[in-house]
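Figure-free illustration: sequence to structure, shown twice.
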Amino acid sequence: MRALLFGLLILCLATPAHAERWVPEPGTTFEWILQGYDGTIPSADAIDIDLFDNKAAQVATLKAAGKVPICYVSVGSWENWRPDKSDYPAALLGKPLDGWPGERYVDISNITLLGPILLKRLDLCVAKGFLAVEPDNLDVWQNNSGFKISRADTVRFLKWLATMAHSKGLSIGLKNVPELQAAVIDRYDWALTEDCFAQHWCADSKPFIDAGKAVFAVEYTDNRINFTKFCAQAKSLGLTALLKKRSLRDWSQSCP
């Protein structure tokens, strides 16, 4: 019996313990800077920056200031400028993303090949000190990707991804794909939308708000939306509204 208890103790000590993961409440403020982040500390509660372009020291500075650093990672595309680009076998690479030079869709239904690559990326998020992850390009199934990817394939991938993120202590957000949120909302800790006001689907994110989880709703200046009306709708729905330029540099406008 003593040997068994001792073994269990060693197992517990050897298993990394994660603090309770971040599940932001509606009203949590948000900033998103994917290009040219210079280390300045924004006023927002959560700061979303690129995984590869930023160092651990920058992440530590954000945490020391009481911010929640989120790492941006594209999970549904291959980018030809990333340091791990050679990790992707040819079998994973599909057609180019329209309007995004240097990117190609990846086969998210092939978790056997894609999974180890994404796990390394999640590990890097953790190693750099990030507390959450923003996975991009979850809508491969809706695009001309070069693969036959179904809705069911995508749901399976989303559930796997959330499980892996949580196993590493990371909070994870569901980006866009409102059609799938009912199937995975219990696995995701917050949501991020793009162009929901311009495309008339902001209300689709209400289940996240009803579940006590923040929704960060980002609109872009190139859509020339009525920002006052966007803010009014966001307030009525409980969304955190933000206006950005498509380049996602440091300029932003929040609702009054």
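We now fold a second protein in the same way, so the two outputs can be compared directly.
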Amino acid sequence: AVKSVISQTLDKRLYEIIVLKNFKDPEVDRLVEQNGGKMNELNVASLGAMIARGIVQSKGEVITFLEDDDVYVPNRLKRIYEVFSNDEEVIYFHHNVSTIDQNGKPIVDQLVERTNVNEFVRAESSDDKKAVFIKYGWFLGLRNSSIAIRKDFIKRFVDVIRLFPDIIDVHLYLLALSSKGAIMHSPERLALHRLSSI
């Protein structure tokens, strides 16, 4: 995951890396610090508390997430930079994913394929957002590694996010649907979602 962020095609001066985890991993720590990132080891189980900490620490205008078992495709951050730079009304951006197995080999997962939305979506008004939710349900709010949000929008909700133990992706989507600003979905597959057997 970390290597996929470091290997992005976007100029490294245009993004920061903030890692939040509840375990020790000297190799990851060293890699992040060598690339100017910030390490946070928190003794909490709540994903919401971790994400809230990252939001508070971030300096950028846009925040995006990557779970430790997923991977960004090389141009993901460049694409997100373009979306938010070209449309200042966008507060929430979501994209599709491809699936990989535990070893990083591409696979087809029918559930992921059913939840990928294969058309471009943009909604700004309350009525348009309602229509989008009726048509697609939760599909535009799945997978943290598929989401980018404008910091000005989300920083108002940090205290609420801190209370969420998990399913942050769905909560962020609901907050965006109920807030002023546009939501956008692209059918581009900008991340690889890793499926592991349990």
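Summary for the second example: The first helix runs from residue 2 to 6.
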